[in-house]
C-alpha cells in the first residue's frame, strides 16, 4: 500500500516536471487520462513499474485539450519521502490556460502531520498550488486531508474554481480550504468546503474576487486576511462574497488585520449569508494576534466600504463584532437586513450581541440584535477627517 502511494506520488511529480520542462514553449496542459485505471488497479506490476506520462495521454503540444484527473492521488506518509522544507506537494507554475477537471481525489493523508510529535518535517506542505499562472480552471475534483492548506493560488490571474469538494476535520490545524494571494480576477463557486481553518482565505494583493454559492463548515469561515503582519503593507479590493451557507464555524465573514500594518481593504460586499451555530457571524478584527499578546501600534491596514446585506441565522457567541483600529477607524460600513438569533447552546458574551469600537457607517434597516454601536461619521470629527488621513497607498 505504501509503495503504491509512493508510486502515485512519483508519477504525479513526473507529470508536473514534464509540464514544467515544456513550460518554456508556451501554453501547455497536464494530462491524466488514464490515471483512474492505474490508481484503481491492484495488479502487482503497479508496484515496480516505471510510468512514462507520454503513454498515458500527455502531449504537451499546447493544443490537445484532454485534461482530466480521475481516480485518487495519495501522498506518502513516511517522513523520508518528503525531505525538509517542502512547501507544496503538487505544484504548477508559470502556465497559461491550465485546466484540471474530473472526479478525482487528491488525498494528502494529512493526519500523520497534524500533531506536533508526528515525526514529520516541521514545514507542512500545501496539497495543490498554482503559482504565476494565467487562466487556471479547477473543476469537479476533491481534495482531502491536506497536510496544511488544500488549494492555493499565488500570483495568478483569471482563475475559476467550481464544483470542488474540500474535506478535512474541523480540528486539523491550519488546513485552509482555498487560499488566494496576489491574485486577480478569481471566481470561486458551487463548492463544499470543510476544513480546520478558513474555508476561503483572501490575502494581500488580491482584487476582483467573486465567491458565491459555497457551503462552509466545519472551518473558520470566509476570511479576508490576516493582513499587515510584521508591519507589512497589504492591499485587497473589490471582493464579493454572496450566497454562502456556514454551519458551526468559528466566524462567518471576517476581516482580520494585525496592528502596525499599512495599505487597505476596500469595496467588499457580503450578501445572502446564512449561518447556523456560528460563533461570530460578522467580524472585523483589527487587533488580530496569534500570540497571547501583541504590541500596540499606531498604524493599521485601513478598512473601508464594507457592506453586509441579508445575513441571517443563529450564532453562539456574538452576532456582530466590529473591533476597529484607534489610529485608523473603519469607515463606510453598512449593515442591511441582519437577523441573527442567539442559539440555545451559546457561550456567554459580555455584549448584547453586538460590539463596535471605532467603527463608522450606517445601519440601513432594523436589525436583530439591534446594532446601535456603529457610529455615523457626522458624530465624530476624527472619522469625518478620515478621507484625508487615510491616504490609500495601494
Ligand atoms: C470587481 O470585480 C468584478 C469581478 O468579481 C468585476 O467584474 C468588476 O469589473 C470589478 N470592478 C472594478 C471596479 O474593477
Ligand atoms: C494596548 O492598548 C490597549 C488599549 O489602549 C491596552 O488595554 C493594552 O494594555 C495595550 N497593550 C499593550 C501590550 O501595551
Ligand atoms: C445590554 O442590555 C442591557 C439592557 O438593555 C443594558 O443595560 C446593558 O448595558 C447592555 N450591555 C452591553 C454590554 O451593551
TrEMBL record:
Family annotation (InterPro entries): Glyco_hydro_28, PbH1, Pectin_lyas_fold, Pectin_lyase_fold/virulence
Keyword list, A-Z: Cell wall, Cell wall biogenesis/degradation, Glycosidase, Hydrolase, Secreted, Signal
Molecular function in Gene Ontology: polygalacturonase activity
Record keyword Secreted present: yes
Localization per record: Secreted, Cell wall
Catalytic residues as annotated in Swiss-Prot or TrEMBL: 220
GO terms for biological process, alphabetical: carbohydrate metabolic process; cell wall organization
The UniProt record lists the keyword Secreted: yes
Similarity field: Belongs to the glycosyl hydrolase 28 family.
Stated name of the protein: Polygalacturonase
Organism encoding this protein: Senna tora
Amino acid at each position: 500500500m505504501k509503495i503504491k502511494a509512493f508510486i502515485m506520488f512519483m508519477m504525479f511529480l513526473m507529470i508536473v516536471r514534464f509540464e514544467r520542462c515544456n513550460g518554456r514553449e508556451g501554453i501547455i496542459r497536464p494530462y491524466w487520462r488514464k490515471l483512474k485505471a492505474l490508481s484503481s488497479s491492484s495488479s502487482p506490476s503497479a508496484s515496480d513499474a516505471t510510468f512514462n506520462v507520454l503513454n498515458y495521454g500527455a502531449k504537451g503540444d499546447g493544443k490537445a485539450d484532454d485534461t482530466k484527473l480521475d481516480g485518487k492521488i495519495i501522498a506518502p506518509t513516511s517522513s523520508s519521502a518528503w525531505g525538509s522544507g517542502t512547501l507544496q506537494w503538487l505544484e504548477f507554475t508559470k502556465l497559461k490556460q491550465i485546466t484540471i477537471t474530473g472526479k478525482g481525489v487528491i488525498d494528502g493523508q494529512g493526519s500523520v502531520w497534524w500533531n506536533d510529535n508526528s515525526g514529520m518535517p516541521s514545514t507542512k506542505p500545501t496539497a495543490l498550488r498554482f503559482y504565476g499562472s494565467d487562466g487556471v480552471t479547477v473543476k469537479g475534483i476533491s481534495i482531502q486531508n491536506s497536510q496544511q492548506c488544500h488549494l492555493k493560488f499565488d500570483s495568478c490571474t483569471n482563475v475559476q474554481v467550481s464544483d470542488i469538494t474540500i474535506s478535512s476535520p474541523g480540528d486539523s490545524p491550519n488546513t485552509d480550504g482555498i487560499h488566494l494571494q496576489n491574485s486577480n480576477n478569481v471566481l470561486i463557486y458551487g463548492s463544499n468546503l470543510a476544513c480546520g481553518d478558513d474555508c476561503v482565505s483572501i490575502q494581500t494583493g488580491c482584487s476582483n474576487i467573486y465567491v458565491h454559492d459555497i457551503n462552509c463548515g466545519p472551518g473558520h469561515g470566509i476570511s479576508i486576511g490576516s493582513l499587515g503582519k510584521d508591519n507589512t503593507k497589504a492591499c485587497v479590493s473589490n471582493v464579493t462574497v454572496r450566497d454562502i451557507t456556514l454551519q458551526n464555524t468559528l466566524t462567518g465573514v471576517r476581516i482580520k488585520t494585525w496592528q502596525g500594518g499599512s495599505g487597505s481593504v476596500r469595496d467588499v460586499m457580503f450578501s445572502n449569508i446564512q449561518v447556523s451555530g456560528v460563533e461570530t457571524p460578522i467580524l472585523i478584527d483589527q487587533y488580530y494576534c496569534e500570540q497571547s499578546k501583541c504590541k500596540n501600534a499606531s498604524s493599521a491596514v485601513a478598512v473601508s466600504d464594507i457592506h453586509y446585506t441579508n445575513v441571517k441565522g443563529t450564532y453562539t457567541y456574538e452576532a456582530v463584532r466590529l473591533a476597529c483600529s484607534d489610529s485608523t477607524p473603519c469607515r463606510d460600513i453598512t449593515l442591511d437586513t441582519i437577523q441573527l438569533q442567539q442559539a440555545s447552546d451559546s457561550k456567554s458574551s459580555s455584549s448584547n450581541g453586538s460590539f463596535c469600537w471605532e467603527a463608522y457607517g450606517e445601519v440601513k434597516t432594523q436589525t436583530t440584535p439591534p446594532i446601535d454601536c456603529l457610529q455615523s461619521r457626522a458624530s465624530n470629527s476624527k472619522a469625518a477627517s478620515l478621507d484625508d488621513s487615510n491616504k490609500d497607498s495601494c
